[in-house]
Amino acid sequence: MLPLTYRPVPVALTIAGSDSGGGAGIQADLRTFAFNQVHGTSAITCVTAQNTMAVTRVDVLSPEAVIAQIEAVAEDIGFDAVKTGMLPNAEIILAVAQTVQKNNLQTLVVDPVMVSRAGARLIDEDAISTLKTHLIPHALILTPNRYEAEILSDQSIETLQDMKAVAIAIHQLGSQSVLIKGGGCTGDLQGTDVWFDGQQLEVLKADPVPTPNTHGTGCTLSAAIAAQLALSQPPLNAVKAAKDYITQALHHALQIGQGPGPVGHWFPLIQAAPLPPVTE
Ligand SMILES: Nc1ncnc2c1ncn2[C@@H]1O[C@H](COP(=O)(O)OP(=O)(O)O)[C@@H](O)[C@H]1O
Ligand SMILES: Cc1ncc(COP(=O)(O)O)c(N)n1
């Protein structure tokens, strides 16, 4: 058996924002890459001052600073898959789209982050149209949540039928496939996602996990998809493996802070070596 240091290591890149609370954004992405046994690299687009209750400040980097980080990784290490998260303005989206084209990037997961789970607006209004016209057409997989899917399609989502119709409508924007995520839905639909790749329409179902601690679900899911693509899984298999990962992470979500806590990534470790009981 080859020692670990001589094995080829799959590499994924996240282009996203930093979450000081550690539950979403870059922090969730790198943790997800690690637990999927993929080396994680990052290009930070902005620094948010954020906790489980609110985003209190956002400092945005220049497009040049974002591109320099991507190029530094591309020139030396390379990557097998890339995901985008919070791209706060049109200039950064355009710069990322140009770099994606220049590097002929085929395995791109676009998580069109617009609104946090807590309802905070995360990108400018004109950034949404730039996302639609310039970045989404390059995506292998696009992963909008309920609210982002409603904005992108200009249709409302209440039922599974609506999710299917919106998946087909959003696919027209030019991504190779789309996954509409149902975390923001109510009742049975909460763990239900809909996949469409132009031919196959598939409903991916998990039982709703009864937890208030859902911070970072979308970031974790898209990072796990990118990790699985970096491990050479075909797109729908990557999505199914990532769905298993986020469902487990929801079952192990952390009760920290006063608002919705983050999903928990340690479940493989806890399963291998259970934690000692808590003493008062
Ligand atoms: N309470 C829950 N129970 C089961 N699955 C959930 C729950 N909340 C979110 N998910 C799943 O987590 C993933 C991320 O979806 P979602 O929470 O909608 O993303 P976002 O964080 O972008 O709003 C999806 O696969 C969704 O079905
Ligand atoms: C920096 C950053 N990026 C993304 C999200 C969305 O988080 P969620 O996965 O809970 O929708 C966030 N709250 N902060």
From TrEMBL:
Domain of life, source organism: Bacteria
Main enzyme class: transferase
Keywords, in A-Z order: ATP-binding, Kinase, Nucleotide-binding, Thiamine biosynthesis, Transferase
Domain (Pyridoxamine kinase/Phosphomethylpyrimidine kinase): residue spans on this chain: 19-263
Keyword set includes Kinase: yes
Keyword match Nucleotide-binding: yes
GO CC annotations, alphabetized: cytosol
Record-level GO BP terms: thiamine biosynthetic process
Annotated GO MF terms: ATP binding; hydroxymethylpyrimidine kinase activity; phosphomethylpyrimidine kinase activity; pyridoxal kinase activity
Pathway info: Cofactor biosynthesis; thiamine diphosphate biosynthesis; 4-amino-2-methyl-5-diphosphomethylpyrimidine from 5-amino-1-(5-phospho-D-ribosyl)imidazole: step 3/3
EC numbers, comma separated: 2.7.1.35
Reaction catalysis annotation: 4-amino-2-methyl-5-(phosphooxymethyl)pyrimidine + ATP = 4-amino-2-methyl-5-(diphosphooxymethyl)pyrimidine + ADP; 4-amino-5-hydroxymethyl-2-methylpyrimidine + ATP = 4-amino-2-methyl-5-(phosphooxymethyl)pyrimidine + ADP + H(+)
One Pfam family this sequence matches: Phos_pyr_kin
Name of the featured protein: Pyridoxine kinase
